[in-house]
Amino acid sequence: MKLLSTNASNTKIRKSQEQSGLRIASLSLYPNDRICSGAKLALCMKPCLKDAGFGIFPNVKDGRQSKTDFYLQDQKGFLDQLIKEIRNFVALCIKNGESPAFRLNTISDIDWTKHGIPQMFPQAYFFDYTKVAARLGRTPPNYDLIFSYSQNPAYQKQVARALQTNAPLAVVFRGHVPIGSYFLGREIIDGDKSDILNQKQKGKIVGLKLKGHEAKKSKSLFIVEPSQACPAISSNTCSEQDLATAGRAFAIAAE
Ligand code: SF4
What we know:
Blueprint: E1 4-5, H1 11-20, E2 22-27, H2 39-42, H3 58-73, H4 75-95, E3 99-103, H5 117-120, E4 125-130, E5 143-148, H6 156-163, E6 169-173, E7 182-183, E8 186-190, H7 195-199, E9 205-209, H8 213-217, E10 223-224, H9 240-245, H10 249-254
The chain binds iron/sulfur cluster.
């Protein structure tokens, strides 16, 4: 079983690849609470994108599940194979004059630094989203992380910890992304262009527009209404204090 996908079949990966000029390989596992340790607090397992796109097809889901089982049941064997595939992909990219990049948590949240993987390949770039604030600020220079937001009260200590770093925070907005407004004291930027660009938005809110027909009706705590953001101060509708506090109500409630 091959672990890495190298043909950019995932739409977001393809978009990021086109925009960045990097050649991206990705790893898609099927998530569970063991490989997504922040999922219980963030309440994200149900609305997770695991069953979106190609994930609706049983063979795709089974393939991802087999990889998860491999990781959990034979970690050494899994890591040996992953490292070999990464090494081969890096060599191929270098041969073709391309820059290699890896997204290893396409639908999981494993701390790959604990396995030494980004450290092993300093010539490659690694990027991921995470729901574990303790992972922020501890990655090597070739590994960027975006913290992923949820309004679940039990998760707000993680959010508060993430806000103490300058890692970008990804927030999903219903309807439209209120670009230029503020949420959690940070300016919101358009995050729908490229995941690679998003990784470089230090200290910003990476605003993502909610997609999908069913998702639009969802009441998930993942989804933020644009009205929860505070318009930029120049609009005269928002005080400086509001700019700093918009979106913080949940954090305070959880303290
Ligand atoms: S942490 Fe990410 S991949 Fe894991 S269940 Fe939550 S949304 Fe899905």
